[in-house]
From TrEMBL:
All residue ranges annotated as the Fibronectin type-III domain in the record: 155-250
PROSITE patterns, A to Z: FN3, PROKAR_LIPOPROTEIN
Name of the molecule in the record: Lipoprotein
Organism domain of life: Bacteria
Keywords: Lipoprotein
Length: 256
């Protein structure tokens, strides 16, 4: 009898403590809380004959902790059908458009904290919708991002550009034919050092309405390449850029 109590009582005591929370380490973390948080700023804009899809990488896990193991993204696209036939949630609605690995950004460009994918496989007057998921190094995927859609229109024709150098500014002159769809909203100016390519973002914050632009910010002794894109404003408020103009070079001339 005594032997039985010695053997059984400690076991019962341990079970009691376990039931009461003995050795508790904190709340259990759901596995889905460890995946990347969904992307919320997916966007698409038309530039010439392609749609540029862009997004920012998440910095948090679904549960709120700092994300440490982001491996890439999977971008999906679907064709938007007439309302009587359209189905966003149907299993075969979306197809994989691009699989992006952070260690090798094939077909994707990074600009600051934004990732850019240029989609050329398009048809005019067709509406395309995109969504994206983040992928961890273990292969787990986030929930779907926000959806973004754009209808492909006929872009405005690119302007013709000339550049004239002076001691105080590089003066750009450009002219373009009015857009076939929408109305002309202005022009975007792109500038980069000669031989180093042009940036992804324009020099101006908003489209320039005039046909002349004076760039007074170049460094003396540096030659710059310039290109201009026409910007059309569509009835729904969206804008469409033309393809780039010809490239013209200019620099600040030293005063005599």
């Amino acid at each position: 009898m005594t032997l039985t109590r010695i053997t059984v009582l400690p076991l019962l005591f341990c079970l009691f403590l376990a039931a009461a929370g003995c050795g508790k380490r904190g709340a259990l973390i759901r596995p889905e809380a460890l995946v990347p948080a969904p992307i919320t700023d997916l966007a698409a804009t038309q530039r010439g004959n392609f749609l540029q899809v862009s997004w920012s990488a998440p910095t948090k896990e679904e549960g709120g902790a700092r994300l440490k193991d982001l491996a890439g993204f999977v971008l999906f696209r679907r064709v938007v059908l007439p309302s009587s036939q359209d189905c966003d949630t149907c299993p075969e609605a979306y197809t994989e458009r691009a699989r992006v690995g952070l260690d090798y950004l094939k077909d994707v460009t990074r600009a600051g904290n934004r990732y850019l994918f240029d989609d050329y496989d398009l048809k005019a007057d067709q509406t395309y919708q995109y969504k994206i998921r983040s992928v961890s190094t273990e292969g787990t995927e986030s929930r779907d991002s926000n959806r973004t859609r754009r209808r492909v229109v006929v872009p405005p024709l690119p302007p013709v550009l000339e550049a004239a150098s002076s001691p105080s500014a590089v003066v750009l002159s450009f002219v373009a034919i009015p857009p076939e769809q929408g109305k002309l909203a202005g022009y975007n100016i792109y500038r980069g050092e000669a031989g180093k390519g042009l940036p992804l973002s324009p020099l101006n914050a908003t489209p320039v309405s005039a046909n002349v632009y004076e760039d007074k910010t170049p460094q003396i002794g540096v030659t710059y390449s310039y290109s201009v894109r026409s910007v059309a404003l569509l009835p729904g408020g969206e804008t469409v850029e033309s393809a780039p103009s010809n490239v013209a070079e200019g620099s600040l001339q030293e005063r005599d």
